[in-house]
Design brief:
With 216 residues, the chain is mainly alpha-helical. It has 9 helices and 2 strands; from the N terminus they run H-H-E-E-H-H-H-H-H-H-H.
């Protein structure tokens, strides 16, 4: 059962999730509607490109290229458009990543790593074909880092083959293969005394307990 969007909940995300899944975002409060609008715009800019214009150091010529928005640019854009604080802008970005799942999961990173390796090999062979062997070598080194061939993979335990240990609880050591103690209380008392003695006293005490007649 989906709780109606008019119901309140502990967090903003809970209310947005329920309203979004129930197709009742129009029933959200004005404050929640504004938050949903802001994080929706943030999500769009995660996939859009920003046109950057810069001057070259040599010659002073301008160059243009596109790249994704960084956090600082997103924050400044949110502040200018919605007149909110820096703290709220960063909170909106974090909320957008959770709501739209636009962050990278471990599976996403693994997929992206495979793509980068394919592109790297393409660049390697292209550089090699043009005789740019220093470039090819640099690309090759980066490919090795991406493939993580220098990292030793840990041995993963096969849980299906694991056999749980059977523990035995007993007050008689002889039951589990140890030598049977005839007078364990006397042995414990002797150990207690030895803990209180210094090194010379321990040696003297041990020597007094040796039966020289049996040793001879």
């Amino acid at each position: 059962m989906i709780v109606p969007a008019t119901y309140s909940d502990d967090t903003v995300l809970d209310r947005l999730y329920r309203a979004f899944l129930d197709h009742k975002t129009d029933q959200l409060s004005d404050e929640d509607k504004n938050i949903l609008a802001r994080i929706t715009e943030v999500d769009k800019r995660f996939s859009e490109k920003l046109l950057v214009t810069k001057k070259k150091l040599k010659g002073g010529k301008k160059i243009q290229y596109e790249r994704p928005y960084n956090y600082k640019e997103l924050v400044n854009w949110l502040i200018e458009k919605y007149d909110i604080s820096h703290r709220q802008a960063y909170a909106d970005i974090a909320m957008a990543k959770r709501f739209f799942l636009c962050g990278q999961t471990p599976e996403d990173k693994e997929f992206a790593r495979g793509q980068q390796i394919e592109i790297g090999w393409e660049l390697y062979y292209e550089a090699k074909a043009h005789g740019q062997f220093m470039v090819a070598n640099a690309v090759y080194q980066e490919i090795n880092k991406l493939q993580r061939l220098h990292v030793i993979d840990p041995e993963v335990i096969d849980r299906e083959k694991m056999m749980p240990s059977e523990y035995i609880v007993t007050d008689d050591p002889a039951e589990i293969g140890f030598e049977k103690m005839e007078n364990p209380d006397a042995i414990v008392e002797r150990l207690r005394k030895s803990f209180k003695q210094n090194f010379i006293e321990v040696i003297t005490s041990d020597a007094e307990q040796i039966d020289f007649d049996e040793k001879s």
